[in-house]
């Protein structure tokens, strides 16, 4: 049975020979380099103890230095499964989700036609290369020289020139016996809409041959020399040879270079790829006049685990990066992702290399940001998060993006990283609503530090933080309801910041408490639970009791927030007094904040009751704070009596 043209190439491009062979052998981990697809094992075709069987996973070939067996995935299955060629193809196609086509009587005819078209394309390559040496191409040669391309580079890339005439290529190939219909099939000429003879597709353009992974000429890209041309860059039309959505410029050489360890870089156009390769980055490719497609992405992952997307430093380049990211998210699997280089504003790789040299590009590639960072940047850049509604919309957008990831393990890790980034974002100081000052961090006053409350270096605030953290660590299932509040909370206790960050990151892991100990430090976690009051809290004594944990955390958060809110009011009242603007409104605010503490049920937790008294409004208050509050109220009364405030 004959297969349609391109079917076997497609099958081989989807297969990992390492995975196919790996079912039959044990890899020698000392000799193998998994990251580069360089794999060694004892040969499955003859008895041996040493690892002389070599698999080049990137090129898709194997060879045994002992018995000299060699081949690809199809031949390996044929030999090891004792099946014929078509049966091996069916086995492998089933593994990668490809349907083997029904018998096609014309398959050989189509294959012969593709070979003939490829020969025509090679003749066109040579014609265009010769034209670059003519007088008509002087302007094109000057342009290429200004772009830094030497004669040797022009030869390496087989760059040519399509003269301005309407039928130069057609007449040349007709004279060599190439039929007009073949030129149409190859996309080298176009039908006239005015009933005239077909005319050349490319005219007055610098020509870049496009080759498939096996090195066969399949299409061209042309750069216009006329500034008034409607299309600055023009690719060949779709043909039996050329499917632009499944083709990468410089695919074959880049695949070989990536297999030797060079970083795989995806740029936007031919000149970027050529510049990168000429400056020491041979594993460079580009899509062809379209955004990166799913098929191209799979081709990239066959060459490298983390291709680097290097796009122009402008709005269009950033949009292109976002499109690639959205395409990649559902396709991510363990070990396969993308990294992104966003070049300086207004520059592409060619510009950067000519301006600052390879070292500047190498530094950007080495610091390329992972996909999750680009996702975070898109969702946060230019977004105001100053209200609960806006934060809710922000959270929803992030959940939707992460929800695009099909692989549950990858999705879980993305959720963990996003929680960590949210933690950092909302932990940064924010201005106070009324005064524009930084929100004060609650700390113990000197008198309180020496009290029994401060045992174990914990203030009252720190002790409430400890109860909240310990409860959620013992019952992480209760965290979801309080995630936003934990992220926004200003932690003051020793190690509490680290514990909170670890809790947010590891709440969904199989053994959260063990993972938190690793992240925040076992000693930090041990000190948290060592405090007597923390250990006696119902939420801590009953791990896994979600309802008990929820009630405990809600109560402690309410008390903590009320206390800190009252403290801010006291500090602002002090400022108002200093500015001689204090009056009844300040007294009222102090009373309201005290009442808020009262409603929150603020009771001392394990503290020395002698440290507490009652404020004028009946709310319990630390003696140290009561003295401060009495002093403020007395000062307000004095100012009012003096007539200094109304």
Give a brief outline of the structure.
A zinc finger (CHC2-type) spans 43-67. Its EC number is 2.7.7.101. This protein has 646 residues and is α+β, with helices and mostly antiparallel strands.
Notes on the protein architecture:
The termini are far apart. Helix 20 (460-474) runs parallel beside helix 22 (496-506), helix 22 (496-506) packs across helix 23 (512-520) and helix 27 packs antiparallel against helix 28. Residues 428-456, 602-621 and 638-646 have low confidence and may be disordered. Strands 12-11-13-14-15 form a five-stranded mixed beta sheet, sandwiched between helices. A four-stranded antiparallel beta sheet has the order 1-2-3-4. It has four domains: 7-95, DNA Primase, Chain A (Alpha-Beta Complex); 106-242, DNA primase, catalytic core, N-terminal domain (DNA primase DNAg catalytic core, N-terminal domain); 243-404, Dna Topoisomerase Vi A Subunit, Chain: A, domain 2; 446-631, no CATH class. By secondary structure, the chain is α+β, with helices and mostly antiparallel strands.
